[in-house]
Amino acid sequence: IMRIMTKTSLSVGFFLLLCLALVSTAVGKTADKNYKEAAAGDVEAFVQKNKGKVIVVNVFATWCSPCVTETPDFVKIRSTYPEDGVAMLAVSIDEDKQAVLNFIKEQKISYPVYRVGEDFTTKYKIDSVPQTYIHDRSGKLYKHIDGMTTFEELQENIEHLLASSPEPGNM
Length: 171
What we know:
The chain is built from 6 helices and 6 strands. The N and C termini lie far apart (about 80 Å). The chain has helices spanning about 1-35, 40-50, 65-80, 95-105, 120-125, 150-165, and strands at about 35, 55-60, 85-90, 115, 130-135, 140-145. Helix 1 crosses helix 4 (about 95-105). The chain is globular. About 55% of the residues lie in helices and about 20% in strands.
């Protein structure tokens, strides 16, 4: 009987480890799927590609306390508005790729995250984070928020743009 229990215990233990490895891999794949090494031009291309939607671009760093505090509000915005109406992009200025991948996983970020270099921070004169840029449906910058924002502030701006700005082509 002891031999049977040992084999059964080993089998159960192996099965649990296998399940844990599969879940861990799936979560890692989600983080990788949303992650991109990018340049300033990639951010501009994202805005151009998403004309017709309200576009929210958040510049952050994983080591920035206000950025960490506001990220759940961006995640909540993503789950509140359909992707065909609101496009979201997070832009990390972190040097450490793994820190960004871990942050995506920990914060459950389900929208694109670009990690940029100095070309971006120089071109857009980013000297502090967080910074949030909200674009109307035509791609024009509607609002720049210098510093931390909240779900309510984001929602108010998005609702205003969804209600007031017609989709391009319907003007």
